[in-house]
Design goal:
Helix 1 packs across helix 2 and helix 1 crosses helix 3. This protein has four helices and no strands. The chain is 50% helix and 0% strand. With 109 residues, the chain is an all-alpha fold.
């Protein structure tokens, strides 16, 4: 997945979750925004809502089911969920039939 698409998906999920949060806890749409960690503003329910929303968006784009969480994704020091930037870089590594089709279309004259 290309970086722009990955970042748009993260920002879309932020928009959805922000509608459910008080103004003081909303996530900024910035690469430096902390998603999880000591300075993160999401509680456990907010984090689950964010992840589910993002999984749905990514699944729609890749046209295959995607699970972004595993047993260590949130507790690892190098978790992809630390910031918007680390999450975007993680999404860039995901691939699916839609991504392969787009690459094939770009390669054809």
């Amino acid at each position: 997945m290309d970086r722009d698409r990955a970042l748009r998906l993260v920002y879309d999920a932020i928009d959805v979750v922000n509608r459910q949060l008080p103004a003081s806890r909303r996530l900024a749409k910035s690469l430096d925004t902390v998603i999880i960690g000591p300075s993160g503003s999401l509680d456990s329910l907010g984090l689950i809502n964010f992840v589910i929303t993002l999984e749905e968006r990514v699944t729609d784009v890749l046209t295959v089911p995607v699970e972004l969480l595993d047993s260590t994704a949130l507790i690892e020091e190098e978790s992809p969920f630390r910031t918007v930037d680390t999450l975007t870089r993680f999404l860039e590594t995901l691939d699916g039939p839609a991504a392969a089709d787009a690459e094939d279309a770009e390669a054809q004259p």
